Structure to design on (304 residues):
């Protein structure tokens, strides 16, 4: 049996589903659906919960809506699990206001997205992250997702920020298992690395040293089961379950647009949310897409 890294000594680890943003027919946030999603997720006993990431369609939300989702999520969770809040916005003032709101409402840690105005220069990006970390004065991660966000820091910059800010103890890493293992080695295993990408490579990400996973919730029960099997020594059982889930994970995670269109609908079906309404810009579901989703997810049951 492979000896796996043990993340339990880290303050934050495990599975943190990141909430989808459900909308009403008129395009406003559907508070009822959001609350139902939170309660259904918590019923499966994840290690935490996350909100306002790419899965939450953060780039489509107004600043008022971001604040509203922070308030709604933390009030509904009510301290039952740690909550991570993603911080992203078009300008420094908006990002600082989000940081303040998340901290005041009781967020456990923050996931900082790259500042759009600093993308052209690594020193500018470091300065922007440093300003956010100083303002946060709490545990923070950087979302390291160059394929989605168009920016990446060098190892030297990660280590520079770590030397300046004791709260910088986590990373949201969207790379492969091999990239994650290298990232951990290059940073002297200083960070609790949370994987993403809907759980692609999840068993291998555990082997690579990932402390946790932040998946969208439609396969939360599967990702929790894989994690618990791997950590308890049942790697064969985890691999069998992963092979069964991989076709639906691969179909949903072809792009962010696909995740929002099909992942959201799969979760809605599994927890009984009813019709899903999209906010522009979006990729409309097709008859073929829905047929593929139904076929790939036929092994899944209802929950929540």
């Amino acid at each position: 049996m492979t000896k796996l890294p043990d993340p339990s000594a880290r303050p934050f680890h495990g599975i943190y589903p990141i909430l989808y943003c459900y909308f009403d027919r008129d395009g406003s946030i559907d508070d009822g659906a959001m609350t139902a999603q939170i309660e259904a997720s918590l019923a499966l006993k994840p290690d935490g919960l996350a909100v306002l990431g790419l899965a939450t369609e953060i780039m489509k939300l107004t600043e008022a809506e971001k604040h509203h989702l922070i308030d709604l999520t933390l009030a509904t969770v009510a301290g039952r699990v740690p909550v991570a809040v993603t911080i992203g916005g078009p300008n420094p003032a908006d990002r600082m206001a989000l940081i303040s709101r998340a901290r005041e409402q009781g967020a456990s840690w923050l996931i900082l997205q790259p500042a759009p105005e600093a993308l052209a220069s690594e020193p500018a990006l470091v300065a922007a992250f440093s300003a956010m970390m100083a303002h946060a004065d709490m545990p923070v991660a950087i979302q390291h997702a160059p394929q989605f966000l168009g920016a990446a820091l060098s190892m030297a910059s990660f280590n520079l920020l770590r030397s300046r800010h004791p709260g910088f103890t986590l990373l949201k890493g969207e790379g492969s298992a091999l990239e994650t293992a290298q990232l951990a080695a290059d940073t002297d295993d200083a960070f609790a690395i949370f994987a993403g990408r809907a759980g692609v490579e999840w068993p291998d990400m555990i082997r690579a040293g990932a402390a946790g996973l932040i998946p969208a919730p439609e396969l939360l029960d599967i990702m929790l089961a894989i994690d618990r099997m791997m950590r308890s020594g049942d790697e064969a059982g985890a691999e069998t379950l992963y092979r069964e889930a991989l076709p639906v994970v691969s179909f949903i995670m072809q792009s962010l647009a696909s995740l929002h269109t099909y992942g959201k609908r799969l979760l809605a079906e599994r927890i009984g949310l009813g019709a899903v309404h999209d906010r522009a810009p979006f990729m409309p579901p097709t008859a073929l897409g829905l047929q593929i989703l139904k076929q790939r997810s036929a092994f899944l049951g209802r929950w929540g």
